[in-house]
Design brief:
The chain has three domains: about 90 residues, Roll (PH-domain like), CATH 2.30.29; about 40 residues; about 230 residues, no CATH class. A hairpin with a 6-residue loop joins strand 1 and strand 2. The chain starts with a strand and ends in a 28-residue tail after the last helix. About 50% of the residues lie in helices and about 15% in strands. It is rod-shaped and about 115 Å long. It has about 375 residues and is α+β, with helices and mostly antiparallel strands.
């Protein structure tokens, strides 16, 4: 154990520092300054004001008529003090505590990371699922309206009335067999060349012009619509947004705060723009969408052929990737859809039998803007 140390002495009268030799004794510090002065500092009269952190200089002060100070650069000085007089210097910092504190801090950080990860992986999804199943449709509609203001501004809508009514007729055919659906579905076509489609909370379905231009039959568009309608009916979109948007939206959903739903419109729109449903949600939308087609008497082969077209042309059309990127494992899903389509059913009638589907590609000849 080292009992001789070097430091600096400040007399409290001037700013000048004097070199000092410090001797540790069982009851006090004996200090000899470079000017020949000799001081005795009993441990109970000393207080430590610096040297609690790694790399920080140790500063000890003694108060009387003036405040004197000792400065020691090496924190091992404190370790020697605790070894020599453990009972008299308990009010001084012990460097060993720093290691313990660092370990505790590290463990606390690990605990925070663990709790956060558990909350993210299990807690928030569970809360989101529960909230999504219980929020009223009116709350979803307010959230959907706020989202649509940012992602589908009215000036970009294709509004040629005759062709819009044709799409509405397809939606009516799809939803007619539904028992008391609480949603009022609305399909909006955007004058945008991207090959994409998405569902918004509350019943709005957005189809991009580029996707409609790729469809060859009404049945193919019906296949896309049935998939997106199921994301709404199964509340996939609401549940996923509650999970990925800030917790403020989740709180608003739990409390039924309609103004809260509107307030998060921009953040929700940004999230929806990059939304990726879980594989389970996608498979459920495929499965229930196929059943929706069958119940409505629409040939499910249209849904399969549309997916096959998207898969085939995915490498050629950059815009098409935007649609496929939100619908992973296309090849596997096509196989599953083919299995579902083989279930016994009445022979479907041709959808919109007397309508020339090539005419639908002119739907954006008129826009709101």
């Amino acid at each position: 154990m080292q009992i001789h140390w070097e430091g600096y002495y400040l007399d409290g009268r001037t700013a000048q520092r004097q070199k000092a030799a410090i001797l540790l004794t069982p009851t006090a510090l004996e200090v000899t300054t470079e000017g020949g002065g000799k001081l005795c500092w009993p441990y109970h009269e000393i207080r430590q004001t610096q040297g609690f952190y790694a790399g920080e200089q140790v500063r000890l002060e003694r108060s009387g008529e003036i405040v004197e100070a000792l400065l020691v650069s090496d924190t091992a000085f404190l370790t020697s003090l605790h070894s020599l007089s453990p009972e008299l210097v308990t009010h001084f910092h012990h460097p060993s505590r720093r290691v313990t504190r660092a370990k505790l801090t590290f463990l606390a950080a690990l605990a925070v990371v663990g709790i956060t990860a558990a909350l993210y992986l299990w807690g928030i999804p569970a809360m989101a699922a529960l909230a999504a199943s219980r929020v009223p449709v009116s709350w979803e509609e307010h959230l959907g309206q706020a989202v649509m203001e940012h992602l589908a501004p009215p000036e970009e809508w294709c509004t040629e009335q005759g062709r819009v009514q044709v799409i509405d007729q397809i939606v009516t055919t799809l939803t007619k067999p539904l028992p008391n659906s609480p949603y009022k579905f609305r399909v909006i076509v955007l004058n945008n060349p991207m090959v994409n489609a998405f569902a918004a909370p509350g019943g709005n379905i957005v189809i991009f012009r580029g996707l409609i231009e790729r469809t060859r039959t009404a049945e193919e568009l019906a296949g896309i619509l049935s998939h997106e309608l199921q994301h709404v009916l199964q509340r996939h979109v609401t549940r996923t947004l509650l999970q990925h948007v800030s917790t403020g939206l989740l709180v608003a959903a739990v409390t039924g705060d309609v103004s809260g739903a509107t307030a998060f419109g921009l953040e929700t729109a940004r999230t929806l723009g990059i939304l990726r449903y879980s594989r389970q949600n996608e498979e459920e939308a495929d499965r229930e969408g196929m059943q929706m087609l069958i119940r409505a008497g629409i040939d499910p082969a249209g849904m399969i052929s549309m997916f096959e077209l998207l898969k085939k042309e995915g490498g050629e059309l950059p815009g098409l990737l935007a649609y496929l990127s939100t619908h992973p494992s296309t090849e596997k899903r096509i196989e599953q859809l083919k299995l579902l389509a083989t279930e016994p059913q009445r022979k479907p009638a041709k959808l919109l039998q007397h309508y020339d589907w090539t005419d639908m590609k002119k739907i954006c000849s008129t826009t709101t803007g």
